[in-house]
Amino acid sequence: MRDTRYVTRRVAAGALALAALLAVVGPAQAQSRQETLILASSIADYITNDPSRTFEFTSQIIDRAAYDTLVTVEPPDISVVKPRLATSWEISKDGKTYTFKLRPGVKFSSGNPLTAQDVRFSMRRLKHLKDQPSFFMDPVKDVEVVNDTTVRIILTDPDASFLAALSCVPCGIIDSKTVIAHGGTDAEDGKEKDKATEWLNQNSAGSGPYKLVSFVRDVEAVLERNPSHWGPKPYFAKIIFKHVANATTQKEMVERGDADVARDIDADTAATIKDGPKIKLVSGLSLNLVYLGLNNSAEVGKELADKRVRQAIAYAIDYEGLMKGLMRGAAEQPPANIPLGILGVDKSMARKRDVAKAKQLLTEAGHPNGFAVKLNYWTRPLQGVSNEPLAAKVQADLAAVGIKATLEPKEFSVVVPEYRAGKVQMIIAEWTPDYLDPHPWADAFYKKGGPATKRVFYDNPKMNDLIANGVRETDPKKRAEIYREIVKLANEDVPWVPMIQAKVSYALNPGLKGFVYHPVWFVTLGNLSR
Amino acid sequence: MLLSYLARRLGLALIALFGVVVVAFLVAHMVPADPLAAVLSEHATKDPAIREAYMKRWGLDRPVPEQFVRYLANVLRGDLGESFTTRRPVVQDLRQFLPGTVELAMAALVVSVVFGVPLGIWAAVRHNSWVDHLTRVLSLVGAASPIFWTGLIALHIFYYRLEWAPGPGRLDTHLQMPVAVTGFTLVDSLIAGDGERFASALRHTILPALVLGWFIMGIVSRTMRAALLEVLAADYVRTARAKGLGEAVVVGGHALRNALIPVVTVTGLNFASLLSGAVLTETVFAWPGIGRYAVTAAVRLDYPAILGVTMITAIVYLAVNFLVDVLYGVLDPRIRVA
């Protein structure tokens, strides 16, 4: 027996030694990170940091800090376009020629001066790469260099949304000399010939307050202060994005002081955060839409081809239940597939649930006992909304007026091609903003042949005229009136049932100053300080 | 004799690898989905020219049999194609992410052996005592609880509540990854002579390795226990005892060596399950490894990446199997003839 104890003791001693080893590798030495901003965030959406190719969230936040645009749009009033690299601009009477005066003395992080030539190069490169964000240059016919500090952009047709589009990251001005040195080109065959993207994924060539110094996919992104920046010196010397997927962990990192910002806080995690000396929960209304798509064609939509049926569906949805129950108050109901906060869109125009009215409309349309419909949705999460309970809720709301919806959950990569081909009867889908003007939404959802419109075969000549007028009109007041008309007509025709415009939540170190949520690029990093 | 044995094992491994590639390719291409839907934005799909350019870039416009032959030919040249999502050669991606996973799996393996073997011995020597029951419960809980959950709870308790362990990630948040020489962060930080980074990397390894290691520690300790019990009942052990040898010598010197053979096999075979367990551990601990890369690839239907990961996992699996076979052959000469 003594000997068994000997073995036992040896085993126990081994375990103790191991525990001791773990303890010896002590806690990290506290290092002053006063001037380092750390964001705990999922950066898995990364494809490229090349501003002329990217259209993903993380890269837009990064590129926003590294590249300046001619103009900018900053909250709270996101319908006003402000100067950035351009100090002033003139728009010709016919609305086709934009002449920009550039800020003098601006230098890129390389030290090269920023001139009108760089503006021309950036716009042409964006257009000719024929990549994801190239559509920003669709309205542009030509870019002319007048002199070093004056550039003229000529459009094919008048486009009142063009100025707002120029505030977006893909329209950032890149250092043509540096980019050419790394294989870049703005020539028409840029799609085949341009080789600068690989370099731009790891570095930046802009004039913004920061420069990208390293990027390791799914691990981290590191930005450093750009000493050549023309504007006020930003507070933080270094900004690090650390890839952390889980919201709870992100929150815990902020509380432990390992991060200053937790970017992806979902509703469940938000509910566990109590403001205190270590953490603060903040939220902002996004421009992300979650909506119901109704196929208007007789062939695919069947019963949905009748406007009255579509109206009945819109009346059947329990919007208040969605906002309060499913979203726990962290959402607004958008009045159309153009979100709140955008020119011409007004909260009061949103529809209220009316079950009696829905039943009456169904009876008028010849379906007093309802009908069967297939409700498609994809299984990966929507923008800030859990799709399974949402689909179940929609199903229940429809059942209350007699419509029997069968749930059709599918993989994203399966259902999206079906949807894009116009083959689904009814679908829950999402949309994120392109730029801060009503036109991109009107164009996508309501204009005949628009990228989303064509999926549900919606076509109303009156609507098409309104949208054409809206994009041509340069007077903001008259424009707002036109978009109000568009929202009204949209509510009459109901090709879509707008359901949820989610608030985005994030957690901050309470000592962080200057944080204002931006619905397109999350936050303007250069404005932050302690 | 040994040489022909090795050659036969190697040949079988290659055939198995080819089978894996064929099956993975067919399954990935049979899924009725559009891989580009997950990669391209709404606007990019508006323009058919952009879509066509992408189809052409990845050869998706060709018939599937042709795609397969091209793929095989490229693989033989060491080219695994270009990932849809990273837009980089898959080989380059694997080179970046595989070392992280191997580092984690090795650490977990160490944990499982260092804890599992002594626990197994302890349980066998004192079988049917409270020690035996305790190790059984520990093993069962470890093997049965989902790693995802264990990981989150471990982080919550040891990082957030007790503040003993460092947070998720490979290094402390204010540190950046060392220059990649081998890709192994521990090794690279040593090469760079960076003590702070090495210590940080080591501390960040402990918790995920314990979580992942616990998962197979149970299997190791149960195997150890069963094997040792069997051996302890053998005639030659009784003889040893009859000779008046001390219990430590009997267990440590005579029984353990023979009892270790099945443990080697089980541990080796479970190395592959460590790789798959790493998928979830990596997600929870924000660990830059092949597991997370595989998840992204699968969700986005990134054929080249999926195939690359499948192949590398198969190679690791086959290599470990091969090693185990060889080790087995060395330990037990009877195997070689069979």
Shape of chain B: globular
In DSSP terms (H or I, runs of 4 or more residues), the helix count of chain A works out at 19
Distance between the termini of chain B: 11 Å
Contiguous low-pLDDT stretches of chain A (5 residues minimum) are 18-31
Continuous helix count of chain B: 15
Biggest pleated sheet of chain A: 11 strands, mixed
In terms of quaternary structure, the protein is: heterodimer
Query: Strand-residue fraction of chain A?
Result: 15-25%
Helix content of chain A: 25-40%
Order of helices and strands of chain B: HHHHHHHHHHHHHHH
Structural class by helix and strand composition of chain B:
mainly alpha
Beta-strand residue percentage of chain B:
under 5%
Distance between the termini of chain A: 66 Å
* Form type of chain A: globular
Nearest-integer average pLDDT of chain B: 84
Q: In total, how many beta strands of chain B?
A: 0
Main sheet: strands, sense, barrel of chain B: none
Largest interface: A-B, 67 and 71 residues
Rg of chain B (C-alpha, Å) = 24 Å
Explain what the structure shows:
- Chain A is α+β, with helices and mostly antiparallel strands and 530 residues long.
- Chain A has helices spanning 2-24, 57-66, 116-128, 162-165, 176-181, 190-193, 197-202, 247-256, 267-270, 298-301, 307-316, 319-326, 355-364, 387-399, 412-420, 438-445, 453-456, 461-472, 476-493; strands at residues 36-41, 71-72, 82-83, 86-91, 97-102, 140-147, 150-155, 210-216, 220-225, 238-243, 261-265, 280-294, 331-332, 372-378, 404-410, 426-431, 496-508.
- Chain B is mainly α.
- Chain B has helices spanning 2-30, 35-39, 42-46, 48-57, 64-76, 90-125, 130-144, 147-161, 185-191, 195-232, 235-242, 247-284, 290-299, 303-331, 334-337.
- Chain B starts with a helix and ends with a helix.
- Chains A and B meet through helix 1, strand 1, strand 10, helix 8 and helix 15 of A and helix 2, helix 3, helix 4, helix 6 and helix 8 of B.
